[in-house]
Amino acid sequence: MIAIIDYGAGNLKNVAKAFDFLGIENIVTSDASVIRNADKIVLPGVGAFGEGMANLTRAGLCNVIKEEAQSGKPLMGICLGMQMLFDESEESPGVKGLGILKGKIRRLPKLGDLKIPHMGWNDLKCEGKLFEGLNKPFVYFVHSYYLDAEDKSIVSATTHYGIDIEVAVESKNVFATQFHPEKSGEEGLRMLSNFAKL
């Protein structure tokens, strides 16, 4: 069973529908006991870093997520869910992230005629367990901020949008993507399937 954490952020239903399509048992929940009893956890989300962290705090889920990650349980963050796994974001100065992974979320630079937010499809340079069976997958992004990981060895995928940006990580049992696998067609479904098989 995969627990999809509900903390009032959008995009939960799309993630659940993707797992449903794959025939993978899942539940959307904000119940700490359900999350603790699940085999794997997904932290999805769209929206602002500060609001997301405030919602997680109000729901009493920050320590639950940290403890489950430390226990070795597979955890996957998607979009805002990935950003909140890190220490802080330029979007919300002074707001602390979960700090499960070390690094900072930075604003995409305004370069030439590139639009911010970055919305659309990009291919990846990638490696790691999430990307098994895939070669330069084409995935869907909606974001204005990007990861600057402290430990570059955990970065499992990059793409180019004016600059090279870090868009996925793999650190032991913790996985995360800035892009949306649930909106990225067959290749995105393959990533979710790979996570489910861990």
Could you explain how this protein is built, in words?
By secondary structure, this protein is an alpha/beta fold. It has one domain (2-196): Rossmann fold (3-Layer(aba) Sandwich), CATH 3.40.50. It is 26% helix and 31% strand. The protein contains 6 helices and 13 strands. The chain has helices spanning 12-21, 32-37, 49-58, 62-70, 80-83, 185-196, and strands at 2-5, 26-29, 40-43, 75-78, 88-89, 103-107, 118-123, 125-126, 138-143, 145-149, 155-161, 163-171, 174-177. Helix 1 (12-21) links the parallel strand 1 (2-5) and strand 2.
The helix content, as a percent range, equals 25-40%
Strands ordered across the widest β-sheet: 2-1-3-4-13-12-11-8
Tally of structural domains: 1
- Report the average pLDDT across residues: 96
Shape: globular
CATH superfamily: Class I glutamine amidotransferase (GATase) domain
Number of strands: 13
* Structural class designation: alpha/beta
What's the alpha carbon Rg, rounded to whole Å? 15 Å
Distance linking N and C termini: 12 Å
Element string (H = helix, E = strand): EHEHEHHEHEEEEEEEEEH
- Provide the β-strand percentage band: 25-35%
Architecture (CATH level 2) name: 3-Layer(aba) Sandwich
Which fold name corresponds to the CATH topology?
Rossmann fold
Alpha plus pi helix count = 6
Poorly predicted segments: none
**Which CATH top level class fits?**
Alpha Beta
Question: Could you describe the largest sheet, including whether it forms a barrel?
Answer: 8 strands, mixed
